């Protein structure tokens, strides 16, 4: 089971935490908010489950209404809005045309401030999505149910591609652009894609990154795995200019910009998808070496992200909304593309790094675009505070709402966000959720509940969280004791399953606290999130972090096993253990402890090879902060590596009693090396 040791230490931390003071949302925010009805929590109480979720379904346009709101006859495979038919691209585009065709749907903001910002209206988005869908269908032969892997940077074409797939009922699997060719290839193979959609290159931190190289490498790796990428479709970052130094491979590669003109004026009727048809796959790390794909539905997912965007992010058609996440993560899918567009808002896609060319960039952009909703992660907030603590004050922008997501935010960092970035004019929501969930689990409803720095808040309306101890007893509010956060009820945004691996889905998320595997009652199947959490007397949840072999680096989930297996690929390495080391900016950064094979001596070169291997296998986000080449790893008598002891050393905390280890003397030797 999960690493019990780290859970215990998380509980210990909790005990020392003090309660923070509340902050009220500004009256100006409350006066205009989408959700101000205090009876919402009663309406969404557990006794009204699942009926309250009708309201979410009603936010969408359906070709055919659903017959069954929730089919829970095959737990834990929940099916929402069964019998209903709809199309996500229709809901995000077509339905806004009558009233709002001239309104901006997407703004593409290139990294260079010398390049113009591109405003794409709903009509223009309709045209581009239709033409691309026609091309993908008529030339590439993609059909409903096919999977397509998309490995692209933050550009408008990425959203257009997702929506074109959705129009056809093609399942998109977007891989974060910063991920390696290997990571891309693994996802192509696992999803069974035969088509990869990519871009020649993009701008990042003032530099041109040649991205097509990764497509070539991925194609070779897919071939090695016994599969084939039949087509690689390449968008040009600067249309009309192919800027990659890796040439177009005859018969396999097609530059989309060269051929899309033939589809001018083409329209594609949206496929009538079943509510429970898969809209997309999103890979995420788990406690085994192999990433798994959360499979998200069309009706349940889209209704959930629409409702969350409206009630928690307070998105309105008149808003200009900027989420700084990457579309390659679930946050970008739900809260850059699907949620805001379903509501008819204007959503910003920013290509580059937040601090390019200087620390004032985000606030300058906020002023220029008159952005009023801002969404980012604690890591980005910490780094913006570090490089430009006084920058926000220099720009005349006004946020009504700000969002933080992805990792726990320290109360001190929260206060800087609220006071300095938000100028005390904005409500702040700390949204807790996961790739698997589609949308939020915990957050305050901004006009109804006060903010409390460092706490995500209660379950969002409709979500009923609970904390269980290891024995499955409920930990009541206000005990100061941590435990495992679970959700009592299913919800529409929850994944359909893990692609191709139903057993893993049940084992990872539902077996931990299910008391009766034969039960057909959803009440017997709480969702196990894999996070430690603490419930305060006021019903607010404070998330303590992962209790499994997953680390959360800069808000991105990485499996320690993935990093360890990349390390073990380097010749000379005998064993590797990855630990989560606290990092001033990223929250957590990986450190690797490595023991070498007999006869191999430690060297800087070997350390570098390990770093290179991790970056090559996974991507720069997994780059370890330190690689320690140590004489041996501390182990229990049964041979289990004691990662907890190594983590304590990395974090300068007490290693505790190690006398029962098989090799206690090694702990002191490693400590001397690391804490020197
Ligand atoms: C893990 C999920 C979908 C959000 C982006 C990350 C941690 C997420 C919070 C928060 C404290 C948080 C949890 C969770 N997490 N939001 N507001 N406060 N921790 O998605 O990659 O699936 O990671 O991120 O540990 O399990 P993800």
Percent of residues in helices: 25-40%
Shape: globular
Which kinds of small molecule does this entry bind, naming each only once?
Answer: 5'-O-[(S)-butoxy(hydroxy)phosphoryl]adenosine
Number of helices: 20
Termini gap: 34 Å
What share of residues are in beta strands?
A: 15-25%
Q: The biggest beta sheet, please?
A: 8 strands, mixed
Main sheet strand line-up: 12-11-8-6-7-14-15-23
Secondary structure: number of strands: 30
Average of pLDDT: 94
Write a short abstract of this structure.
With 676 residues, the chain is an alpha/beta fold. The chain contains 20 helices and 30 strands.
Structure overview:
There is one protein chain. The chain is an alpha/beta fold. 30% of the residues lie in helices and 22% in strands. The protein contains 20 helices and 30 strands. It has an eight-stranded mixed sheet with strand order 12-11-8-6-7-14-15-23, sandwiched between helices. It has a seven-stranded mixed sheet with strand order 5-4-17-16-18-19-20. Strands 21-22-24-25 form a four-stranded antiparallel sheet. The longest helix is centred in the first third of the chain and has 17 residues. It is globular and about 75 Å long. It binds 5'-O-[(S)-butoxy(hydroxy)phosphoryl]adenosine. 5'-O-[(S)-butoxy(hydroxy)phosphoryl]adenosine binds next to α12, β20, β24, β25 and β27.
């Amino acid at each position: 089971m999960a690493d019990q040791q780290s859970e215990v230490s998380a509980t210990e931390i909790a005990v020392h935490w003090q309660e923070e003071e509340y902050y009220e949302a500004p009256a100006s925010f409350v006066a205009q908010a989408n959700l101000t009805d205090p009876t919402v929590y009663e309406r969404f109480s557990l006794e009204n489950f699942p009926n309250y979720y009708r309201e979410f379904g009603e936010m969408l346009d359906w070709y055919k209404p659903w017959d069954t709101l929730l089919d829970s006859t095959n737990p834990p495979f929940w099916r929402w809005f069964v019998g209903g038919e709809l199309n996500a691209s229709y809901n995000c585009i077509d339905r806004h045309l009558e009233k709002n065709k001239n309104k901006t749907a997407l703004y593409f903001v290139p990294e260079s401030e010398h390049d113009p910002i591109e405003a794409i209206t709903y009509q223009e988005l309709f045209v581009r999505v239709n033409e691309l869908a026609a091309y993908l269908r008529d030339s590439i032969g993609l059909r409903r149910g096919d999977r397509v892997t998309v490995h692209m940077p933050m550009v408008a074409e990425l959203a257009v591609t997702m929506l074109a797939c959705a129009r056809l009922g093609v399942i998109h699997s977007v891989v974060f652009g910063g991920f390696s060719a290997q990571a891309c290839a693994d996802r192509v193979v696992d999803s069974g894609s035969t088509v990869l959609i990519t871009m020649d290159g993009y701008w990042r931190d003032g530099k041109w990154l040649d991205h097509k190289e990764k497509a070539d490498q991925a194609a070779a790796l897919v071939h090695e795995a016994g599969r084939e990428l039949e087509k690689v479709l390449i968008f040009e970052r600067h249309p009309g200019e192919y800027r990659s130094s890796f040439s177009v491979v005859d018969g396999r590669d097609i530059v989309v910009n060269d051929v899309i003109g033939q589809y001018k004026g083409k329209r594609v009727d949206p496929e009538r998808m079943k509510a429970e048809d898969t809209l997309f796959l999103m890979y995420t790390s788990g406690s085994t070496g192999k990433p798994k794909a959360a499979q998200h539905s069309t009706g349940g997912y889209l209704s959930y992200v629409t409702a969350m965007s409206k009630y928690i992010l307070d998105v309105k058609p008149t808003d200009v909304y900027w989420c700084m996440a990457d579309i390659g993560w679930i946050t970008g899918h739900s809260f850059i593309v699907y949620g805001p567009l379903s509501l008819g808002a204007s959503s910003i896609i920013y290509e580059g790094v937040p601090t390019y060319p200087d620390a004032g960039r985000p606030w300058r952009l906020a002023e220029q675009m008159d952005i009023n909703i801002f969404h980012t992660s604690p890591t980005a907030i910490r780094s913006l505070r570090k490089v430009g603590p006084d920058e926000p004050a220099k720009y005349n922008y006004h946020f009504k709402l700000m969002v933080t997501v992805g990792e726990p935010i320290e109360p001190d960092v929260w206060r800087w966000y609220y006071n300095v970035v938000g100028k005390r004019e904005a409500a702040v929501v700390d949204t807790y959720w996961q790739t698997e969930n589609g949308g939020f689990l915990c957050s305050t409803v901004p006009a109804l509940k006060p903010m409390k720095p460092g706490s995500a808040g209660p379950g969002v309306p409709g979500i009923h969280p609970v904390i269980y101890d290891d024995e499955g007893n409920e930990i009541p509010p206000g005990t100061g004791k941590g435990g495992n956060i679970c959700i009592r009820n299913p919800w529409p945004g929850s994944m359909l399953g893990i692609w191709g691996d139903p057993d893993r889905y049940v084992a990872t998320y539902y077996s931990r606290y299910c008391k009766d595997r034969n039960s057909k009652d959803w009440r017997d199947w709480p969702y196990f999130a894999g996070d430690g959490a603490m419930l305060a007397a006021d019903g607010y949840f404070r998330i303590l972090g992962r209790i499994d072999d997953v680390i959360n680096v800069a808000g991105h989930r990485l499996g320690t096993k993935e990093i360890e297996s990349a390390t073990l690929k380097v010749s000379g390495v005998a064993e590797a253990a990855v630990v989560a080391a606290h990092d001033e900016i990223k929250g957590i950064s990986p450190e690797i402890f490595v023991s070498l094979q007999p006869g191999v001596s430690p060297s800087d070169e070997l350390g570098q090879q390990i770093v290179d291997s991790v970056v090559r296998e996974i991507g720069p986000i997994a780059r370890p902060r330190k690689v320690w080449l140590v004489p041996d790893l501390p182990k229990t008598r049964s041979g289990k590596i004691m990662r907890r002891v190594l983590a304590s050393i990395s974090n300068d905390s007490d290693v505790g009693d190690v006398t029962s280890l098989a090799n206690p003397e090694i702990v002191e030797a490693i400590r001397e090396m690391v804490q020197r």
